[in-house]
Structure formats: structure tokens, C-alpha cells
Amino acid sequence: AETGSLSIVLLGASGDLAKKKTFPALFNLYRQGFLNPDEGHIFGYARTKISDDELRNRIRGNLVPGKGASGEQLEEVSKFLQLIRYVSGSYDSEEGFQLLDKEISKHEFSKNTKEGSSRRLFYLALPPSVYPSVCKMIRNYCMNKSDLGGWTRIVVEKPFGKDLDSSEQLSAQIGELFDEQQIYRIDHYLGKELVQNLLVLRFANRFFLPLWNRDNIDNVQIVFREDFGTEGRGGYFDEYGIIRDIIQNHLLQILCLIAMEKPISLTPEHIRDEKVKVLQSVLPIEDEEVLLGQYDGYTDDPTVPDNSNTPTFATMILQIHNERWEGVPFILKAGKALNSRKAEIRIQFKTVPGDIFKCMVSDLLFSQKQGRNEIVIRLQPSEAIYMKVTVKQPGLEMSTIQSELDLSYQQRYHGVTIPEAYERLILDTIRGDQQHFVRRDELKAAWEIFTPLLHRIDNGEVKPIPYRPGSRGPEEADQLLERAGYVLTHGYSWVPPT
Ligand code: BG6
């Protein structure tokens, strides 16, 4: 492992993301020994004028593990908080960043070592509008200056732009200041345990290899649902909508991992080369293949205009034009304010040809569709992989039911803590592993897919259908799903005619 001083600078330190995700992730890394307090410092930077202690107090509540926290745990939190310093300044202020650099330099070699390599990680938990100026300031004033080596890296959060042009512009501006190897575009879904498992599942199992294609797979569904609305972030959300917020990044990344060819190796470049090829093979999205929704009451938020056309729900079908996937619909579905919180992937296989279990006598049973094999990968909550299989109903009769081969993580890996996505990804940035980060050409290809549709929505040419909060979303979405060939397998059973 690399040694030398490690400074992690959190820009936007007083914001929501930093408080809810980034600081807790850093704390977990610290607890597990990944942030050596002899080498590491954390700096918060933001406009708000507060003291070190005020910042520490603001984030403490998100670190303490609930009411029953032991003295030891509280002690651990306090020790971690002592690693944090705060610098206030605006995002385009030379003085602010000069001061930040001074603070970093002052602490860098103040502990055991007087000199050494300097590692500086800048995490931009900020709106993209300030990325260019912040990057410029970092470039001008805050880079690693040690003669003994080290690095400077920046982590940027989505949204990376609003469409192809704005994203390319942003990429060009940042690209002038930093090499691609220094830029970590975070998509936290790539840090989720079961997303990281996708390549293993696909490429380390003989079971799946021969079946993973258009000859066997009927359709693929990637679903994200949340049971709350845009509470408190209506202003942000309204500018972006569900497609930019969830589908263009989180769900599309999952699509890539499901659809990509086997990479030459697990090196970040080989993996990302294959992902780019998938993205470039996605056909333009037709309006008939899209169903948008907006939940009732969405515009009650004072930061959302009354006539907002922003979708809070979307179902759409993507087609991948290549030898493996031609004709297989990839259904992407995401929604806020629905009846449950869940993210899952459903890969549904074609029905068995020449089905001998189909009932040929009774009209009722005849109409029943054959149970389909399905692999379900549940990312959250309760991580699980299960395969729906048809088996004989136990008992004297010869009838069939659908059952599951079930790998539920909580049961199978009882006692194993699954790391938070952010924790894992921040560790990757410290280690210099870009595998789970979005490369510039990948980002561009992702925007190319959605930009025409997004512009049609922005212009009001495609409109969302209202749906009731707490519902499954607009009913029309199910019709789209059915048209795409998805067969509901839940509760399937076949009983022979008497
Ligand atoms: C973020 C979106 O990227 O992901 C949010 O901006 C969304 O709108 C969140 O709530 C969901 O993340 P998770 O990890 O809770 O599924």
C-alpha cells in the first residue's frame, strides 16, 4: 500500500450529501483501519462560516450508531471527528483555496513524518455548476507539491451535465485541468454489493455463460422504486427529473454490466471498453417505448413550478443492436413516491419449447401461461439472488408449481456486514482503482442515448401521466411491460385436468 500523508478534502462539507453519505463513509473506513490517523487528515470546505467544532457537531449525529451507543463507540466517533478541520471560502475564491492549501500543507507532515509523498483527494459534493471553477482553483493552488511523489485526484458526483452538449462542455473544461486518470466520476450504484457481483455471477459460472443471449433470454428488467417523493430536494429534482437522476446513470450502468461482453481482463480499461461498446449499440429510444409519470402533489413543493413537466416516474424499453441482444427488450423502470422501496434486476427466460405440462383440456388452464425461469437480483433492500424454477408440487399428484432457488444474503452470509457503496468507492479512489467509475467516453455515450428523448420532454412534446403517491405508478406502465413480453410469474402453478 502507498504511504505518505493522505488529505481528503470534502468540498460542499456543510451540504446534505457530505453529511448523509460522505462523512459516514469516511468514518467507516477509519473504523476499519483504512484511514491511518498517523497519515490522514480530513478537511471540510464550504461557504458557510462555521468553526471546526460546529462542523463536527453537525455531522456527529450521522456517525453515532443510534441510542444504545456504547462509550467505546462514542469515543471512536470523537477520535474521528478530531481528524476533521474546516476551512470556509467560496467556490471561486483564490484566497479561499490558498488558505485551504495552507491548511493542508500545515497538517500534511505534522505528525510522525516531516516529509514524504503527498496524496490529496478532493471530493466535490457540489452542484456541477461550480465544478469548473473549483477544479481550476484546485489546479492552481492545491495540487500535491511533494518532491517525494504522491498524487492529486478529484471525485465528482453526478449530475455530470444535463444533456450531451452540457456534459461534453463540462468534461472538456475539467479535462483541460486534470488527466482522465485523476478524475473519478462516481456513480454510487457501482459500489453496491450486488452490482459488484454481476461480473462474477456472469463470468465465473458455467450455468449462465451459454444462456446469456437472445436465444434464451426473453427480456431484462431493471427496476428502481422509492416509497418517498422529492422531499426537500424538489428544486434540484425538477431541473433533472427521474431519467437524469436515476436512469441515465444508475440503471444504465447496471444494463452495461448485464449486457457487456466478457472483458479481456478485470483491469478498469478493459471493463470500461466493453461497457462503452454496449452503450454505443443502444438504438435511439422511440416515444412509444416510453411511459412517463408524475405523482399527484409533486408540484405542491414551493420550489417546483406549478406547470412542471418533469417526470418522477419512467418506464422505457431500450434495444441493443448487436449479435447477443438483438430483439431482447431491456426495460428500465424508475419511480419516486411509489408503494415500496426496491431495486432489482429481473432476467426472464423464454418459455420451454414443446411444453408437455400445458393443459390441453380445460379452457381455463389452457389460458394459463407457462411458468418462466427468471433470475432476480435484488440490490436492496435485503440483498438476494434467486432463480425462479418450475418444480413438481410435492405430494402424490403430478402437478407443477413455481419455486425459488434462493440465495438471500442475510441468511447465507449471516453476520457479514455489507459495506456501504460510498465507503467502497472512496477506498477505490484512495487506492487508485477506476474500475467502478465512469470514464469520459462512457459518460458521453450514456448522454447520447437519452438526450433526444430528454429534449422532447423538456419541450413538452412527451408528457407525464399523473399517478397516485403510494401506488405502483401509472397503470399504463404495466401495459408497456406486457407489450415488451414480460410475463408475471408470481403464483404460477399448473394442476393437471381431472
Ligand atoms: C441518488 C438520487 O443518486 O440516488 C436520489 O439522486 C436517490 O434521488 C438515490 O434517492 C437512491 O440511492 P439509494 O442508494 O438509496 O438507492
From TrEMBL:
NADP recorded as keyword: yes
Signal peptide start and end residues: none
Protein keywords: Carbohydrate metabolism, Glucose metabolism, NADP, Oxidoreductase
Functional pathway: Carbohydrate degradation; pentose phosphate pathway; D-ribulose 5-phosphate from D-glucose 6-phosphate (oxidative stage): step 1/3
Domain Glucose-6-phosphate dehydrogenase C-terminal residue range list: 199-486
InterPro entries referenced in this protein's UniProt entry, alphabetically: G6P_DH, G6P_DH_AS, G6P_DH_C, G6P_DH_NAD-bd, NAD(P)-bd_dom_sf
GO MF entries: glucose-6-phosphate dehydrogenase activity; NADP binding
NCBIfam families tied to this protein: zwf
Protein name: Glucose-6-phosphate 1-dehydrogenase
